[in-house]
Amino acid sequence: MRRRTFLAMGAGAVAPLVLTAPADAAAAQSHTTPAADSAGSDSLRDLAARIGLRFGTAVIPTDLDTPSYAAVLADQFSVVTPGNAMKWGSVEPTQGQFDWSDADALVAFAERNGQLVRGHTLLWHNQLPDWLTTGVQNGTISAGELASLLKQHIFTEVTRYRGRIWQWDVANEFFLDANPSGIDPNNFWIANCGTEIIADAFRWAHEADPHALLFFNDYNIAGEDGTNAKSDAVYAWLRQMLAQGVPIHGVGDQGHLDTQYGFPTQMAADLQRYADLGLKVAITEADVRTFVDGPTTQVPTDHLATFAQPYEFSQMLKAALAVPECISFTCWGFCDADSWIPGFFTGQGYGTIYDVNLQPKPAFYDLQQDLRLAAEGAPHRVGGSNGGFGS
Ligand code: XIL
Predict the structure, then answer these.
(1) Residue in 120, 168, 285 to alter for ligand 1 test, most ligand atoms within 8 A of Cβ
(2) How far apart are CA 52 and CA 139, in angstroms?
(3) Cα separation of 53 and 253, whole Å?
(4) Which of 154, 194, 279, 380 has its CB surrounded by the most CB atoms within 10 Å?
(5) Whole-angstrom Cα distance, residue 141 to residue 174?
(6) What DSSP designation does 268 have?
(7) 58 C-alpha to center of ligand 1: Å?
């Protein structure tokens, strides 16, 4: 019903955010359901629970500190990822001095609200502490020392949260955006330590927490590049790693889409191909951005984008639902007001499922409908699990 209202109004309307009208806002409240995974609730987390999927979001401190955000976070999501709080630069800004406050607060929130946690991320070229990158640059940290500092970092962080992290994004963004693709030789870690550092990171993380599911995470690895070159390279590498016995349990496709490129046609097939290697799969950072009037209001400048945005979100979820080994679908933030998109992609926004006023957007209702149909429609979704976590 609400979707129909939007379509009818959206077709000729200049301003697409019809769902922010007071009547809609009031009605939208009824979609904010209690946290319990009770049958019949139409929250995203409860609908997903019925089909063996965890529905998640990235979280930043504002989400926990603002009651209205915290309520949506608890009500709608069953798995949370720290947006920044577990990155090396956040937890050890000064060498040997740790700040776990944001990460601890998120894990505690998740446990209070029956949510699992995706740890993010242990080995990445971005958001490293300055002391580390500067030390490497000026030669005071040698390649050998760099590898042992990483080992220490992984053991410290993974051990701290041992038994409380469902999935760890151990390694993030190592492949080239090129055709053919492959591991980027100029990546900070590869250039300094060689490619074996990735396998080592998985081995160390596994030793520190043998029950956590360890993921390789990257973007454009499910056909988003149009050529499938990156997916082919990641697939070949994962195969090789698994043949060598490296403890990799899952692959995460970030899922940062942009309406100007359209939806990739082989996402489900690519995800299934990873799963057929014996891996779990996950969508880890879903958002769908488009061009907007400005970062505060984030009204799409092309009114067709108000259809393309929820369409691409829905297609992405359907691709995930088609793969029984897909265990979680995580949005990279849930509200346009605090999304990373306006700060990173000039002129773009409108990327999440709640608008700048924390009202659900058409994408929210589309995802709700997709989840419900996966449980009740034909064909039903089968499979999915928490990968044995906690058992
Ligand atoms: C982003 C955060 O959302 C921003 O707040 C931060 O300034 C930069 O990083 N891929 C990833 C995430 O794996 O860690 C990134 O998160 C978004 C792209």
Answers:
(1) 285
(2) 49
(3) 16
(4) 154
(5) 22
(6) H
(7) 10
Ligand 1 neighbourhood includes 352 CB (under 6 angstroms): no
CA distance 298 to 276: 40
Residues 43 and 382: their CA atoms lie apart, in Å, by 20
Query: The tokens 């053919």 sit on which residue?
Result: 180
> Would you name the residues annotated as active-site residues?
173, 285
- Token output for 264: 């990739």
Note the pTM of the prediction, 2 decimals.
Answer: 0.89
Low-confidence ranges of the chain (pLDDT < 50): 1-39, 390-391
Query: Cα torsion for 220, 221, 223, 224, to the nearest 10°?
Result: -10
- Structure-token pair, residue 373: 């149909």
- Amino acid identity of residue 87, one-letter, is K
In tens, the pLDDT along 257-302 reads 999 999 999 999 999 999 999 999 999 999 999 999 999 999 999 9
Closest C-alpha to 295, from 238, 227, 347, 229: 347
List pLDDT tens digits, range 147-197.
999 999 999 999 999 999 999 999 999 999 999 999 999 999 999 999 999
